[in-house]
Amino acid sequence: MSDGEAMMDEDSSGSAAGGVDLSLTTAASTIDPTVVQSRILQSASLAKESAADEMDEDGVDGEQQAQQAVADQPTFQRLNAMKARRGRSEYRRVRCPAHRYTPLRENWEHILTPLVEYLRLQVRFNTKTRSVEMKTSSHTADAGALQKGADFVSAFMLGFEVQDAVALLRLDDLYLESFQVTDVKLLRGDHLSRAVGRVAGQAGKTRFAIENATRTRIVIADTRIHMLGACANVRVARNAICDLILGAPPGKVYNNMRNVAKRMNDGIEGSQVDVVACGSSEMRV
Description:
By secondary structure, the protein is mainly α. The chain has helices at 3-18, 44-58, 62-71, 81-84, 101-106, 108-118, 145-157, 162-165, 167-170, 181-184, 190-200, 205-214, 231-245, 250-267, 272-275; strands at residues 91-95, 122-126, 131-135, 174-180, 217-221, 224-230.
């Protein structure tokens, strides 16, 4: 027997004689995950991924740990609009301009259908004040349904088609931006008329080109310009309109719009193009 083996035998005999146990203990000082609850709450997907990683490293059943982590999280039922307001109803009133009274009467059924069947709102038209009034009820499930309905009706009152304005009810990333021509450049008289004409183009050619290139909808009402679309697309359309107001030649704006449309079709095809579509899928010519 060598000297090293003799020393190891002496150390082991000395430890046993002294009564010192070097094995792991399950005393109260040891952290037990079943007793000490973690203050870090994860979603079900994150809990499964974390448990799967631990299973790969330590050989622990990940599905069981994921179920244990999720079981302690409280679940609450979604409140409807009435319960969120403690039983009180909400009202919205959107005034109808004089030039939109006839289109509102002709498209009233198409406007009323999504408000009543989809948003579950109570809607009426007040002939005395010439305004559309909306109210929540016990059937209104979404707390933000009233605001969506008001935005939808307001978009129609500004001049958008019903097919385009109804996209505000279906998509959450659409916005409506309005500005005046004089906000970009202070113009008067014939100069103001020519600026509006450059934005519209002959028979609306320039406006349609900007709409098709940026996937937006544009309404030109006198000196006011309204744009409906995704945030990034509205910004591109606004820059093009501002260039036209400042006096840029339409040919240069056409080239910029052609480049923008090419980049959108090449880089964003499939995902973002479907999201930023405003209502109708067919393109205007």
